Every structure is written in structure tokens, then in C-alpha cells.
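[step 3/7] fold_predict: job queued, chain A
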Amino acid sequence: MTPAPSAPPDILTATAQGRLRTIIERLERLEEDKQAVMLDMKEVFAEAKGEGYDVKVLRKVLRIRKQDKAKRQEEEAILDLYLSALGEV
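[step 4/7] structure written:
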């Protein structure tokens, strides 16, 4: 028994087209929001740099603060171990 023929993959139903349009429009708005946030962050980093803060270190602090504390401590311990083994500490 052959399966019932389905719509060709290059044709979307009106409902699917509407849903696709909604998804794309939402993503476009989020991209605009993302660009605005990135511009705001760039301005804050420039302000911090102007006040003498090291932007590279600020970015690292942000990355570290996102991590789970226990996981971060474990990684730091392993890093210390490796550096010690290499005579760097």
C-alpha cells in the first residue's frame, strides 16, 4: 500500500506561510534589538576605557560571572595545576 501523497516540499500551506512570516518578523525585530544592545554595550565599554578600566579584563569578568561558581573553581584549580606543572606559577 502506498502512502497518501503529501504536498510537494516546495509549497507551503497558507497557515504555514503565515507562521513562517511571523517567525521571520520576530527574528528580524530581535536582530534589531540585538544590534541596539550591542551598540549600547560598545558605548559602555568605551566609557569604561575612558575611565581607565581595561576592556579586555572587563569582558573576561563578564564571562566568568556567567559561569557556575563550582565549575569555575574546578577549572581554576585545573588551570593552576597545569601552570604549576609547567613551572609558570
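[step 5/7] annotate
The chain has a mean pLDDT of 92.
The two ends are 72 Å apart (CA to CA).
exit 0
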